[in-house]
């Protein structure tokens, strides 16, 4: 009885739209004159679109950058904060503050940071370096978005890792110190093996989250410059809102759903393994 309201909301606002997405992918959707069954035509349309390969490549590039640049940041900070003997609470709160910044403020703030005459380029010029066209150079645009999202989101992940690190029995560290183990030896032989399953779980969750990213690419650059930030999810949004091809957008969504469902299965197995350990 207590679960029914939550289950009803879950079904109506999540599973029902997913089911409709599968159905709409087989139709030409027209909310005025009615839908027309077109079979696999929507899939043929999106699979023959040149922007699809661009979007897939950009998405993989974005996911890779998030792993290389952003994935290790919260782990590093969690390990560093766990070694603090004072001001640990202040550091935790400071690290989480970027998560509560409204997105509108966040995007405006970082567009100012990345401006040709903004503070970042001013600092580069003060050091005798050339300014960087963060927003107009295709080579820098995706990197700029990854840096922004890493700054905003690492705090919540850091707190999860920190909780795991602090749950490790202190007796292990004391025994290691008696045996002469330094800080790096303790991290390598005690901390990292103890949080290994959590790291794998967070890795899969980040893969799922970053593969669906489109908000920052849309708000900051609208997929530009030269489609350098056109991700797969943003291509779905453009099909639905710009081209008004709901059926084709649904077909793209179904393809993404199948890939993410596979990642979700992997995530659940890792979670079960971690719970068993």
CATH superfamily: MetI-like
Lateral arrangement of strands in the main beta sheet: 1-2
Distance between the termini: 33 Å
Radius of gyration: 23 Å
What would CATH call the class? Answer: Mainly Alpha
- Low-confidence stretches at least 5 residues in length (pLDDT < 50)? none
Please characterize this protein's 3D structure.
It contains 13 helices and 2 strands. Helix 3 crosses helix 12 (232-241), helix 4 (88-96) packs antiparallel against helix 7 (138-166) and helix 7 packs antiparallel against helix 11 (215-221). With 277 residues, the chain is mainly α. The protein has one domain (50-276): Orthogonal Bundle (MetI-like fold). The protein starts with a helix and ends with a helix. A hairpin with a 7-residue loop joins strand 1 and strand 2. It has a two-stranded antiparallel sheet.
